[in-house]
UniProtKB/TrEMBL annotation:
<comment type="similarity">
    <text>Belongs to the RecA family.</text>
</comment>
<dbReference type="GO" id="GO:0000794">
    <property type="term" value="C:condensed nuclear chromosome"/>
</dbReference>
<dbReference type="GO" id="GO:0070192">
    <property type="term" value="P:chromosome organization involved in meiotic cell cycle"/>
</dbReference>
<dbReference type="GO" id="GO:0003697">
    <property type="term" value="F:single-stranded DNA binding"/>
</dbReference>
<keyword id="KW-0067">ATP-binding</keyword>
<dbReference type="GO" id="GO:0140664">
    <property type="term" value="F:ATP-dependent DNA damage sensor activity"/>
</dbReference>
<feature type="domain" description="RecA family profile 2">
    <location>
        <begin position="187"/>
        <end position="241"/>
    </location>
</feature>
<protein>
    <recommendedName>
        <fullName>DNA repair and recombination protein RadA</fullName>
    </recommendedName>
</protein>
<feature type="domain" description="RecA family profile 1">
    <location>
        <begin position="3"/>
        <end position="176"/>
    </location>
</feature>
<dbReference type="GO" id="GO:0007131">
    <property type="term" value="P:reciprocal meiotic recombination"/>
</dbReference>
<keyword id="KW-0238">DNA-binding</keyword>
<keyword id="KW-0547">Nucleotide-binding</keyword>
<dbReference type="GO" id="GO:0000730">
    <property type="term" value="P:DNA recombinase assembly"/>
</dbReference>
<dbReference type="GO" id="GO:0000150">
    <property type="term" value="F:DNA strand exchange activity"/>
</dbReference>
<dbReference type="GO" id="GO:0005524">
    <property type="term" value="F:ATP binding"/>
</dbReference>
<dbReference type="GO" id="GO:0003690">
    <property type="term" value="F:double-stranded DNA binding"/>
</dbReference>
<dbReference type="GO" id="GO:0006312">
    <property type="term" value="P:mitotic recombination"/>
</dbReference>
Length: 241
């Protein structure tokens, strides 16, 4: 039961980039500009996590913590159709919670931990879309930064514990810096969240839009994975080749 498993992104190349997919017992972070596909990838994983996979993976239930109110059941229905899964069955296997503030988000994860303790082995994926939006609002400005980072660190520690204690894949989305200085850098996108997120995330992936409507995924500063990038598309059936 404690064997590490990997969840498909829906794109063959993207999975290859991740050496199989989004890994359990780890935190995978994606960041990128608006429309780059973070929420679509979250929705796709809600479905692929329910399907059997390599190494004896049987599929399982999903927890989705939504901070931006972008969870859409109609998106999930069309992704379920693509994989020939029963629409209602797919929706029933997703435990959805909306987080209204950063404190609420933290509290929800406490409740999730308690629930996972009661229902061991049922849930395989925990999504937080996005990890940072409430923190940017609740702790605004330079003076609040140390406090914000402290609270964010506590939240990430809680996610780590959940991923390792219950063999769960934790998937979080993050935003990018939008200051002018950033545009002049060779790396056009930098994630927010500072050292706290950088150290807490096991794998960090940047997503970006390119001209032909495609998206590019790139592993960001990983010691384990090759520093390469792949193209993928967003369809009504979710992330695809
Ligand atoms: P944000 O930072 O604003 O939350 P995001 O990275 O979460 O952005 P998504 O919501 O995942 O972005 O992606 C939205 C994009 O997905 C849209 O710009 C659109 O191009 C594409 N998209 C959404 N639904 C479909 C669909 N059914 N078919 C094709 N493309 C779609
Ligand atoms: Mg989004």
């Amino acid at each position: 039961r404690n064997q590490i498993f990997k969840l498909s992104t829906g794109s063959t190349d993207f999975d290859k980039l991740l050496e199989g997919g989004i890994e359990s017992m780890a935190i995978t972070e994606v960041f990128g500009e608006s429309g780059s596909g973070k929420t679509q990838l979250s929705h796709t994983l809600c479905v692929t996590a329910q399907m059997p996979g390599p190494n004896g993976y049987n599929g399982g239930k999903v927890i989705f913590i939504d901070t931006e109110h972008t969870f859409r059941t109609d998106r999930l229905r069309s992704i379920a159709d693509r994989f020939n899964l029963d629409r209602n069955g797919v929706l029933e296997n997703i435990l959805y919670a909306r987080a209204y503030t950063s404190d609420h988000q933290y509290q929800l994860l406490k409740n999730v931990g308690e629930m996972l303790h009661r229902e061991a082995g049922v849930f395989k994926l925990l999504i937080v879309d996005s990890i940072i939006s409430h923190f940017r609002v609740d702790y605004y400005g330079r003076k609040e930064m140390a406090h914000r980072q402290h609270r964010l660190g506590q939240l990430m520690a809680r996610l780590h514990k959940i991923s390792e204690e219950y063999n769960i894949a934790v998937f979080i989305t993050n935003q990018i810096m939008s200051d002018l200085n950033n545009l002049e850098q060779s790396d056009p996108q930098r994630p927010v969240g500072g050292n706290i997120l950088a150290h807490a995330s096991t794998t960090r992936i940047s997503l970006r839009k390119v001209l032909n409507g495609k998206r590019i995924a790139k592993v960001y500063a990983s010691p384990n994975l090759a520093d390469s990038e792949v193209a993928f598309t967003i369809t009504s059936g979710g992330i695809d080749n």
